[in-house]
Each structure stands twice: as structure tokens, then as C-alpha cells.
Amino acid sequence: MVMFDYKIVEDVAKELYIRALCDLPPDVRDALNKAYLKESNSTAKEIFKTIFKTIEVADKHGTLICQDTGLPIYMLKIGSDFPWNGHKIKSSLYKGAERATKEFPFRGSSTHPLTRVNPQTSVGEGLPVIYFDFLGKTDHLEILMVPKGSGSENMSKMKMFYPAHGVSALKKFVIDTVFETGANPCPPGIIGVGIGGTADLVMKLAKEAIVRPVGQRNQDSVIAELEEELEDAINSMGRGPMGLGGDITTLAVHIETAFTHITQNPIAVNTQCWAARRARATIFPDGLIEYGY
Amino acid sequence: MTTHHLDTPFSNKTIKQLQAGDIVFFSGTLFGLRDLTQIYMFDQNNKPPVSLEGMPCIHTAPSLRKVGDKWEKICIGTTTSTRMERFTPELIGEYGVKAIIGKGGLYEGSLEAMKKYGAVYLAIVGGSAALETDQIEEVEDVYWEHLHPEALYKFRVKDFGPLTVAMDSHGNNLYDDVKEETRKRLPKIYHQLGISE
After folding, report:
1. Which of B114, B115, B82 minimizes the C-alpha distance to B99?
2. E strands, chain B, where?
3. Which of A28, A41, A63, A67 should be substituted to probe chain B, the one whose Cβ sees the most B Cβ atoms within 10 Å?
4. How does residue A2 score in pLDDT terms, banded at 50, 70 and 90?
5. What pLDDT, on a 0 to 100 scale, did the predictor assign at position A265?
6. Angle at CA of residue A97, ends A252 and B155, nearest 5°
7. DSSP string covering B16-34, please?
8. B44-103 residues touching A, CB cutoff 8 A
9. DSSP strand pairing (A129-135 vs A71-79)
10. Helix axes B88-95, B108-117, angle to 10 degrees
């Protein structure tokens, strides 16, 4: 049996957190550039220019794009052709996130929910958020890291509609959420929508929706059509970048779905700000690491 | 849309010139504060050890590093202002703060105080901390260190901006105007999406 050094996972967990905070994915940059070209409002155009300048400064100095280093989320896909040790992976992610915070160093935002004591580690009970999934016929471990800032996360909403409310209620929920949350989630970002599942699964689907690269549509053509329809509708609202008016209110609407109960019609919206940060790594059993987004 | 290049402190005359939609850059002193700083000030009755008269305050929780007794910047950005609404009228009325810098805007109570005492809300581009950090020349002082990263900070800035005058001292609120414009468009959007209201 191959002996794998889990220190590699810890180092990668640290590196991914820092990469995600400093280097905006190319698909997000492209989407912002395209959005700027479509924008006609002068205030909004100024906002886009400031966004580009920010990205430029972060690239040049290798610094954090946004001050909110968020709560760390790690989404894992574990290949089944290698005996990965889940427990060791979990503790390595915890240590990696803590090391990123202390060694970079940046502000830790994790806090006890009642005492509000902040250990300045970005971790704590229940953190980092970790999602495990499994892949057949591969031996590698894929880790997607998402630092989730609170400006957008605080604007999350979910509702358990009934079947009688139909798809119409779901569309209205998305539009009304964007209307109500306005400037707070730092638009124009990604509107992640989960439809179906249970109360907990529907929000997880919305979270999966915000990490999909901008420009990719849901593979189901019916869902892809709904994404486009909602995207066009939101971009006709006039809310604009930072809620100060303009043509572009969102870069993309992404929807993820799951089967639900015959009596249920759940929906969740998880918004992502324009700084839609994420970083990805694939670790192979021989210790080779490939980084991406 | 006029672009203004200002220096701190701001006079009433300067503030009155700023109209919603204008762009502002400024140089000089900038104070940083947020939730806990203001809970400490207003709920726990602690007076700031420094005068805020005529000064701008930014809603921030910075990443700083202390080297010896000197604070160095790592990342200084802006947080959502709406959480700070409860404290803002007093911050303006009692301490003479002339500009609040943040993202997301504030509500009616703050707008009233801005009108009454002469102050503005300057919207920054949320998430643009890399640029803000670059425009902050120095962390001059940190008061109430035990509250860090939610202490009271004194920064020196150069050409800080661009900032959009989103709420002016004449009672105009750009966020509300945009929201009302969007509200008018909603029935048509619902109709196009086949939504029964």
C-alpha cells in the first residue's frame, strides 16, 4: 500500500485559501470585462473601472482583493481508486485554513455564535465547512476552496413553497430577493439558486451554483433556459453595480437542482459578490499537485 | 456628475457642494470603525480619545500587523454599512463626523442627520480592498486596541477614491432613487416571467 503524507493536504489547504483570496478566476475576470462593455450608465462604468484597478493592484502586489477573508469552505471530490483517509483529510483542512490565516497573515472572521469571541484562526467548531463527494475510476483528490464573505452570505434566503405555488413562485422569489438585497451583496456577482431537495440540501445546491465557473450553463436545457430567463430579467431591473444604478445587476444566474418530496417546492438563493473567489487543486497519490480554479 | 478632489477636515461649505451622484477623491485623515467600535462608544458610553470633528469615517475591520509599537497595513477594506444605522445619527450629531464611507448605504435616520448637521454618505466599491489599501499611506494610530480588528483607527490617505456621493446633505439618497426606479419596473418583469402577483 502507498504511504501518503497528509501534510501535503494541509499545505494545499493553506495555499488554496491564500490563492483564492488574491487571484480572481479567469472566468470571473472575463465576465466582468464583458459586463463593462455592455454597461451604459456612467456611474456604473466608474465602478467597473475601480473593480479592474483593484484586481490589477491585487495581481501586482499579491495582496487580498477584498478585506473579508470570509469563512472557509472546502468542497472535496475523493477518487475511489486510492485509499484516502477521510479523517486525516478533515483535520488537514482545519490546520491548513488556520495556517493560512496566521502565516499570511490576514484577519480571521470565525467567531463563537454567542460569546462572539474571535480566535483569529478562521476556524473553530464546525469550521471549515467541508463537503465530501466521491468519484469512481480515479485515484486523485480534488479540493475546491471558496472563501465566503459575509456581505453576500448575509443576503441568503430560502423558502419552502408548496407544489401548488408552481414555478412562478420560484421565479418571483429570485427576483424579489435580488430586489430586496439591493446593494448589499456587492453586485454584479453570481446569483446561486437551489431548487428541490430538503431544507438543508436546497441551500447546499445554491452554494454549488455560485462556485460553477461563470459562463457555464446547467447541462439540463430546461434549467439552462430558466437561468437565462432570470438573468435577463435581473439585468433589466436597473439596480446596477453596487446598487447605484446601471444595466448590469448580475454576471450570471446559476441554478442547481435535486429531486424533492411530492409535497415540497423548496428554493434557496445564495448570492456571490463580484469578487467571486475560488481556487482548486488536484492531489495525486504520488504527491503531485495541480492548481487551477 | 462633478468630480471633487478634497482635503480633510471637511467644512460645512464643502459638504453642501456635494450632490448625490458626484464623485469624490480626498486626502488627509480617515477614521476607521464598525459594529463593535460603536457598541463600545454608544452602548457602553466610551468617548473617543481623539476628535472626529469634520472627519470622514469608514466602515472597516482591517487586517493589520503590529511591528514593535507601529501598526502596518495588510488589507484595509470596507464592510456593509446598513448594520451601522443605529449609531450613525449620533456619530454625526454628537461627534461632528462629516462623511461616512461604506457600502450598501444607510437609512432614513442617517439621512435626516446628514441633512440636519451637514454630512454625506460616500459609497465605495465594495470588495475593492486591494485598491483602498494602496491608497492608505499609513496607519497613524489605533485607539482601543483591545477591540482590534474592530477598534478605532486613524489612517492617512492620498487621493482616496473614487467614492460616489450616494446620500447628500440635501436629503437625496441615490440608493432609494435606484430602488424606486427598479420597483416601477417590477410589474413588467413579473409579467414577462409569467409570474402571477
Report:
1. B114
2. 3-7, 23-33, 56-59, 63-67, 70-75, 99-102, 120-123, 136-143, 152-167
3. A67
4. low
5. 97
6. 80
7. HH--TT-EEEEEEEEEEE-
8. 60-63, 65, 74-80, 82, 103
9. parallel
10. 10
pLDDT score of B197: 66
Residue A103 covered by a domain: yes
pLDDT, mean of residues A110-137: 95
* Residues 28-87 in A contacting B (C-alpha not used; CB under 8 Å): 42-43, 46-47, 50-51, 53-55, 57-58, 61, 63-69
| Shared-domain flag, residues A145 and A214 | no
Tell whether A180 and A224 lie within a shared domain: yes
B101 closest CA partner among B56, B157, B133, B161: B56
- Confirm whether A237 is domain-assigned: yes
Alpha-carbon distance B19 to B22, whole Å? Answer: 6
ipTM of the shown complex: 0.92
Residues A92 and A73 in one domain: yes
pLDDT of A3 over the 90 cut: no
Asked if the C-beta of B189 comes within 8 angstroms of chain A's C-beta atoms, the answer is yes
- At residue A116 the predicted structure's pLDDT band, cuts being 50, 70 and 90, is confident
pTM of the model: 0.95
Structural domain for A74, as ranges: 7-23+63-149+277-292
Cα A213 to Cα A254: distance, rounded to the nearest angstrom: 9
Q: State whether A172 and A111 are in the same domain.
A: no
* CB of B123 less than 8 A from some CB of A: yes
Q: What is the pLDDT of residue A33?
A: 98
A220 assigned to some structural domain: yes
Q: Is residue A37 part of a domain?
A: no
Mean pLDDT of chain A: 96
Q: What percent of chain A lies above the pLDDT cut of 90?
A: 97
Give the pairing of strands A189-195 and B136-143.
unpaired
Domains of chain B: 3-192 (3.20.130.10)
